[in-house]
Amino acid sequence: MRAPRRTPSRAALRRSRAARPWLLLTPALLVLAGLLLYPLVRVVVISLQDFSGLRAVARGTAEFIGLANYREVLDDRQLWLTVLPNTVVVALVAVVLTVVVGTLAALLLETLGTMARAATTIAILSAWAVPAVTGTYIWIWIFDPVDGLVSKAAQFLGLVPPGGENWFLDRVTFFTIVVLNVVHHGFPFVALTVLAGLLTIPTEMVEAAKLDGADAWRRFWSITVPMLRPVFAVVTILSTIWDFKVFTQVYLMPGGSGQNREVLNLGTWSYVESFGQTEYGTGSAIAVVLTVTLLLITGVYLRTLFREGEL
Fold this sequence. Notes:
two-stranded antiparallel ribbon, mainly alpha, MetI-like fold
């Protein structure tokens, strides 16, 4: 006689349903662990060792020195007076300008007709499609001390001497060019993301606001911003992550690869120490400091957003 089949309990069904998403995500999580988690763990391990010189790298042998590399980095005056201010200030300015310019571009696209919007979108996307390396060299050419468009215009207006001006020597003008480069490359993403959010706003609300006498500025702050707060939160978080770890736009600029120590940020400082000075342990410690700083800033921002119910 066949034994009666047991029906699963409700608790077992709940556990089974809860496990299904993780089973589906397992292949992707394993790939991410191999591509992201292992390198991150490896960098942390190297930062705790004396990996000075190519001999230690070639032999794979290094002395464990604990937090000595971190003490060396944190005790370096260059970190607090130059590198960290360069990283934080440039990132904050770039994030604000990227979100503002992207939002203005999205508002412009919303007002255009179908054909004009398509043409403008293609033009905006061209800035995003250009690789960071190519875009950086374009900005270097524009600000070339002798033949650059900006130098030529400044000479014509009598703002600089006839011989031209080297915009890459001064710390402020150097990072002004970097910010222009970063914003030019990053605002298309913000523009298209915000545009997608603008198209979801009910037209009835906008028409009602117009009938009540609200101008464009009032409609933007009373309708657009409250409804698109989650969108603005996402683009701000992503821009913060991207702009804090800017590397190409700084390293390829004249002096940015280590010749001018006044324009180093955390990303280029880590690279210069690792591959320029063969101090791989110190360079890895700087990379960990950059990662932790970025995680703390992002974590605080996310916690604020969750408290306010914007995400």
